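Interim report, section 4.2 (structural modelling).
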Amino acid sequence: MAANRRLTREAVREAIAAGARLVVLPELSTSGYVFESPAEARECAEPASGPSLQGWAEEAARGDAVVVGGFCELGEDGLLYNSAAVVDATGVLGVYRKIHLWDREKLFFEPGHACAPVLATRAGRIGVAVCYDLFFPELIRGLALGGAELIALPANLPRFPQPEERPIEITLAMATAHLNHLFFALCDRCGPERGVEWVGATVICDEHGWPLAGPPAGNGPALVVADCDLSRARDKALSERNDVLGDRRPELYVPDEPTHVA
Amino acid sequence: MAANRRLTREAVREAIAAGARLVVLPELSTSGYVFESPAEARECAEPASGPSLQGWAEEAARGDAVVVGGFCELGEDGLLYNSAAVVDATGVLGVYRKIHLWDREKLFFEPGHACAPVLATRAGRIGVAVCYDLFFPELIRGLALGGAELIALPANLPRFPQPEERPIEITLAMATAHLNHLFFALCDRCGPERGVEWVGATVICDEHGWPLAGPPAGNGPALVVADCDLSRARDKALSERNDVLGDRRPELYVPDEPTHVA
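Predicted structure of the assembly:
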């Protein structure tokens, strides 16, 4: 826990030294992911007012930066949440509690009860979601409708068998960025943890979905940096007559029951 | 018009001869796409009871097959629609009128006023959408919720500048299939038409999003065929504790207004 806290703080410092205005850390970056028991998860939890986020805030102050990172949150209700915090030099701007829990997370965490947020920060309007949330395009669309220019997604993506090509999670990030015409910063874990292999699918996509940086070669710790002009995500025009969000027809998105049976 | 009608009928015949149980044709396959005027579009229109769909039904009868194809529909209201028909040996099972019109289509067509459908056919439960509809993940999600095992997407995808890699539309199809755990059959146009270059991004993806066949080499007419066990799209379990559709939390998909301004 103390070691992870130090590592995440050092990673934030390194990124800001490299010029980053927005830094994204992985999911559960202060605690690790593969808990053996609820008790072990609880030992790794801390409140949003705890030392990990305080450390990120102190680092953010060095570069007028914003940090989005996953942590194991001890709620004021005594429950544990798989959360992402948004922090700047002034402290904690917001905490999002992951609403879609993956597999054994359900043994340790309470799912969040509030929408994923869009925060207007000094680094732009940042939508925040965590890992498996990416698999719910309706959540991401909500962030786009909420004005997100960039989505920051702390993640711990376990490796599943797939063809020898770009990890499917990067394909999802690209499509998500393209479909919502916004930037996407996915920060994944790397290496192994208690028998789980992480994909290391860290990537930054532009508003057309194209990777600007990442994934890093190898599967070790890496800093992935890209210049993103977030203002480009504000203009949703696709043609003289089309607009990514304006063309939506939400009244028609609930299908009828099947109308023909052969 | 007569030539296109013959070409689409021949394409259906060829596909069924190759063993296809489900045949997907491009958008506006009987008329072409690049109209100069509403009058020209009207000259290329026909009702769903017209000879083009009748021809497809006759071909479908040869193989107990189902055909999904785009056509320029003359509605009973006298308006033109950019429609996709689902046809089998018994005739027309359903007609979907595209609800998201792209660019100059708005000059020629009335947008549809009904949801994209899921039809239970002898080739499986088929969700139908057309081209630009793919850019609305909430529409596709509706088809998944409606029980679609495969989405058939007639398309005419104009080529835009992009990096030298897989066309973005194929990335979108892969992500869409993966996120909804269903098969995806995208049939695109090829070659040039009145100064527009079509991408030729025809692809069939499995329920994990991986291309089973396509896109064809070159940019000429091609038949893309794959074996798809659609029953695999019915089981939406992702892990012991996760389900693609069951994990949704629709009450949380409308974001709050931005909560912090730095």
